[in-house]
Each structure stands twice: as structure tokens, then as C-alpha cells.
Amino acid sequence: MERDTNFVLGIYEDEDVLKDAVTKVRDSGVKIHEVFTPYPIHGLEDVLGYKRSRLPIAAFIFGVCGTGLALTMQLLMMAVDWPMIIGGKDHAAIPDFIPVTFELTVLLASFGMVGVFMVSSNLKPWGQPRIFDTRSTDDKHVMAIDLAVNAGLGEDKIKEVLQASGASEVNNKSFE
């Protein structure tokens, strides 16, 4: 269960103004909770200071598990449980196992990445998403500042910083 939180939202009209505003807001000591945009903005994650995702590491681990599972399954089926000679080949004809191994590797890597992404992003099926401003899906850019994290600065100071950085609107938003 998530705690009750209060946010100050800065609404921006232009992506270039938003990128400059992120730099100004971070330089003033305000910690940004998140920035919502209607489309991807190149370089925004760098300006926000995001680290590189570790999702490829999870994909590799799930892919290795898929490869191991596929090879083990086929070897046990074809060489131990029900050994048959098909076309004069060995019971454990590894080259013949490559298509199934590839498919299971891709399947487990993709399902594993989706699962890890859902868990790390807190996107549970029974959860209720927080919608800060519905215009962020249409034509506005929204910067959300968590008041609990920035308690030492004060709400008025945060609003001044957002307005000085070029926000066309500054609003409050509460979630219960």
C-alpha cells in the first residue's frame, strides 16, 4: 500500500523548455519525482540523471535458463526417456536441438524481461495507476515534485523554482 503523497506539478508547453527546466530545477536543489511526456524526448533521461537499465542482465540470465532448460529437456526426452534412432542419427543429436533451444531461449528471455519490468515498475494487475495530469498524454509535459522528499525547501520555494524555469502552470496534486 502506497502512502498518501502531495505533489507540485509544473506544466510545460515545449520539450526544449522542459529539458532546460529539468537542469535548472535539479541545480536549485529540488529533487524531481518524475517527468511525464506525451512522446519520448531524446536526451531527457540523461538530463534527469537516470542510470543505464539493468534489464539486459535479467534478459541474459533468463536466456541462459531457457537454453539450459531446452537442452536438458530434449536430451532427457530423446536420449534417456525414449531413445530412438531417427534417420541414423545419435540419440543426442545436438545440432537437431538448435531450433527448439533457440525458441525456448527467446521465449524465457522475453517473458522474464516482461516480469522483471512489471515488478520493478510496480505495475501490478490489481494496482491503480497514479495519473498526475491527463494532458500529459496529449500535448503537455509534466514535472512532478514530491513534497515529502523536498520537505526542507517548502512548497512556495518549489513553486517559485518551477515558475522561474518556464512552467506555464504550477498545480498541486494529492493522492490518497
UniProtKB/TrEMBL annotation:
<dbReference type="Pfam" id="PF11821">
    <property type="entry name" value="ActD"/>
</dbReference>
<keyword id="KW-1133">Transmembrane helix</keyword>
<keyword id="KW-0472">Membrane</keyword>
<feature type="transmembrane region" description="Helical">
    <location>
        <begin position="97"/>
        <end position="120"/>
    </location>
</feature>
<feature type="transmembrane region" description="Helical">
    <location>
        <begin position="57"/>
        <end position="77"/>
    </location>
</feature>
<protein>
    <recommendedName>
        <fullName>Quinol:cytochrome c oxidoreductase membrane protein</fullName>
    </recommendedName>
</protein>
<dbReference type="InterPro" id="IPR021776">
    <property type="entry name" value="ActD"/>
</dbReference>
<keyword id="KW-0812">Transmembrane</keyword>
